[in-house]
Amino acid sequence: MTTTSPTRRTDPGAMTRSEVRRPASLADAVRELSELGGDGAALAGGTWIMRAPLQDAPVARVYVALDGLVELRGIRTAGGTVEIGAAVTHDELAAFDGPPALAGIVDAARRSAFPAVRSVATVGGNIAAVGFPEADLVPALLAADAAVVVAAPGGERTEELVAYLASRGTRPAGELIVRVVVPAPAGRRSAFERLTVRGGGEYAIASVALTVDLDGAAVSAARIAVGGVEEVARLSPAAAAALVGGPLDDAVAERAGQAAAAECTAREGLDAPGWYRLAVLPALARTAAGALSSPDQQK
């Protein structure tokens, strides 16, 4: 099935119509995108693609719609891991009653953007969007040690999310994120905190996600990720090291936030200057750490 819809090229005076194809299976989608090469692009929720004219970004000649592919849907728990389909929406993820290891991811999905956006924006789209440093799910997934399963013409393979993000702008045609795999061992807890300029629904000027493994009251292992501060969300090894070896209190969390700020080179923007993005990280880390003691984290 093929439909068309009006779009605008980067030249404001030029109008065109992009073709939209609806493949019957994941294999068909991979094949079509591979054959299209630079002329094609995947289309899921469309929230990032719809912003292309505002960002003077190119519009694809053909979009391959993914919303009807059952292979990309659903959230499954098995063997100490949780698998999240790439086409799962933020709303669906926000409603997931999962283990504490995924609490930060669920909270990031719940607080991201506006309700209308959350109802269609997808997990895979949030990860794959280039030039979107404010993406809330990315730091939460990084902190949770997530991996992505990618489908390509040669088959499926699993990659660490860190590696995928590093090469996100140069991925080959025909490649699609199929699902995200998140380890969820017993004793692991996670949290997410973000700051916006005016309130809910806006992009975060900075965010902090953390995951800790507990041995009694002491932190035995930790991962901290920072979003919105640099062009791509990143892990902070120094911040994680600051958390390990003792109980997690406000002072320890603030020191971790300070360590994260020292590792980052903040971007400048109309929404916030770079120095401010760094300055708020200790408070965000403290608030995220405080969320780990909530009743939902005790199950």
CATH architecture classification of the largest domain: 2-Layer Sandwich
- Indicate the low-confidence ranges by residue numbers: 1-15
SSE order, as H and E? EEHEEEEHHHHHEEHEEEEEHHHH
Number of domains: 3
Characteristic key phrases:
299 residues; alpha+beta; Uridine Diphospho-n-acetylenolpyruvylglucosamine Reductase, domain 2; Uridine Diphospho-n-acetylenolpyruvylglucosamine Reductase, domain 3; Enolase-like, domain 1; five-stranded antiparallel β-sheet; four-stranded mixed β-sheet; 11 helices; 13 strands; disordered N terminus
Architecture overview:
The protein is α+β, with helices and mostly antiparallel strands and 299 residues long. It has three domains: 2-65, 2-Layer Sandwich (Uridine Diphospho-n-acetylenolpyruvylglucosamine Reductase, domain 2); 70-183, Uridine Diphospho-n-acetylenolpyruvylglucosamine Reductase, domain 3 (2-Layer Sandwich); 188-292, Enolase-like, domain 1, CATH 3.30.390. The protein is built from eleven helices and 13 strands. The strands form three sheets. The protein has a five-stranded antiparallel beta sheet. Strand 7 and strand 8 (155-160) form a beta hairpin. It is globular and about 55 Å long. The model is unreliable at 1-15 (pLDDT under 50).
Please summarize what this structure is:
This protein is an alpha+beta fold and 299 residues long. The chain is 29% helix and 27% strand.
What is the element layout, followed by pairings?
Blueprint: E1 2-8, E2 15-21, H1 26-36, E3 40-43, E4 62-65, E5 75-78, E6 81-85, H2 90-94, H3 103-111, H4 115-118, H5 123-128, H6 137-143, E7 147-152, E8 155-160, H7 161-166, E9 176-183, E10 188-195, E11 206-215, E12 218-227, E13 234-235, H8 237-243, H9 250-263, H10 274-279, H11 281-291
Helix pairs in contact: 8-9, 9-11
